[in-house]
Amino acid sequence: MDTSTVKIILNILHFLFFGFAFLSILSYIVLSFISARETIEYAKKNSFVNYKDILSSPMAPTITIIAPAYNESLNIVENVRSLLSNHYSNYEVIIVNDGSKDDSLQKLIEAYNLEKVEFIINQKIETKSLRAGVFKSKNPAFEKLLVVDKENGGKADALNMGLNISKSKYVACIDVDCLLLEDALQKMIKPFLEETKKRVIATGGVIRIANSCKIKGGRLLDINLPKNLLVQSQILEYLRAFLLGRMAWSRLNGLLVISGAFGIFDKEIAIKVGGYDTNTVGEDMEIIVRMRRYMEEQKQPYKVSYIPDPLCWTEAPDNVKTFVSQRNRWTRGTIETLRKHRKIAFNKNYGSFGLLSYPYWLIFERLSPIIEVVGLVYFMVLVALNEVRWEYAISFLVLAYTFSVLFSIIAIYSEEFTFHQYKKKGNGIKLVLLTALEPIILHPIILYAAIKGNYDYYFNKTKKWGTMTRKGLASS
Questions:
Q1: Which of 279, 338, 386, 404 is the most buried (most CB within 10 A)?
Q2: From start to end of 273-418, where are the E strands?
Q3: Please, which residues have CB within 8 angstroms of residue 434's CB and are 6 or more apart in sequence?
Q4: Residues 27-47: tens digit of each pLDDT
Q5: Exposed/middle/buried for 54, CB within 10 Å: 0-12, 13-18, 19+?
Q6: The pTM is what?
């Protein structure tokens, strides 16, 4: 290959990388603008809402909270107390103990005075069989609680068991280690009640990080900023993702994922599509894509909603090993979902779902880390060939870094002027200062985890869900 051919190839790659970077930045700007408008409109509209009307109304739709639990002994009692503290009228809580090897079930039996009951399960979705059985409390104060002990089948299988048992119209699927605020169900059910022209099939909300927060009796008493830099960096990441990303996709009716930590679903549609897929590690994303695909193919008008209220708090990884394991799983789940539903890609029969949402997720989420690594290799090749225009390269790096910092500052600004959760003196300044470090601290780890996730998916063929070592929210 002669020198001129090499230069032509390098120039083509140069323009491709420049185009990707330009479109990536442009998409972030557009999405943040749409998110800002949507958040402001939401805040104005809901400032006049009396959620007590939903609370007291006998017409409030029934909701079943389904919480899978596996070896959650450390948090299980406090977290169930949180789920039972909701200010909502028509709801029940189903805890699915998915073959835990610890004393989770025994702690629940003792704390909530449970006894085994005869229970007929309408198995619309195939699941693993029961182990110890179904338990209810002898104490009338816990009449809304139902505990199911089954053979281990994974989170998706446990959620499907909950779908089979639920008698409600809507199901709220939540990680049992999460803390749900008292008014969460009232706010999350509102989009289902408001929409008249389209069928709302799912609603998601903001997830916040509870590390270092003071929690007692299943209630969030005090919000603190963690000292751990990795956890702090994840707070910034969550603010960007939820306040400047998903709000925009909700407005565009293009959401492809609702966090597995907390979301409400139309149970009828969830069951019609076969429930959660037990053969993927990204079941939370996959079921949304499958429900949307079903509605598109049935030619039914629908919507996946999202609200910006911080309704659910969860424990984030505080060490690199656990963090990489989590993000590795997220990457593999994304690959599995996009491959399984590749028929949607660039397919006009699926409308904006196929022509906008799927392509965006494929290019800027799925392929982004691979493109970034290829870009780094490309840069090293240029260095080796002495073809680097350093003034251009340095300007590009400064631009990318500056944009990342500014984007995080906008997310903090949005948080401060809407829900203002980090109220303690100095927290806002700490977060702003963190924006300068976060691209250096968090991004390289995320990139490594994403590449490792790709490698594990294609070469290790792993189906492992990954581990998340809990330290306990109640003692935080």
A1: 338
A2: 302-314
A3: 229, 232, 233, 236, 408
A4: 999 998 998 888 888 877 776
A5: buried
A6: 0.91
